[in-house]
Amino acid sequence: MTIIHRTLRQAISLGALGSLGLVACSQGAAPQQAAPSGGGPDAEQTQRDFPPKPQFQPMELQAQYQGPFEDTVIQRWRDPVDGSVCYLYIPAQVSRERREDSPFLDYGSNNIGSISCITQQMALRSVPAGQAPQQQQQQPSE
Signal peptide span per the entry (predicted)? Predict the structure, then answer.
């Protein structure tokens, strides 16, 4: 018999089924009373053992501009490793909450946001504005 079934049987015998609500009936939820006594912080630690968060080198924020819509911003970020530059179009403020089943923050769904990146090599390959008309003149017209 599972912990949930035992807890439900105890609640029925005590007449407290109405106070449990629907949360205890879901198979993913375990009642907090079912934790063994004396478990202490070690029991909570084993339940929340998540893999370590990856460590990344941070990019450098170079500039921030007002976005086209209210409460939006455009940020220019530079990667110090390879020189790539990224422009982010994001909301200025978002609500967030910490989830119990994840070590990460949940920012919810967002319909506003985009990212555009260009590497330093791509920028160097760009044709300067003064050379573009000369190349067009050399090509025969058909």
Answer: 1-29
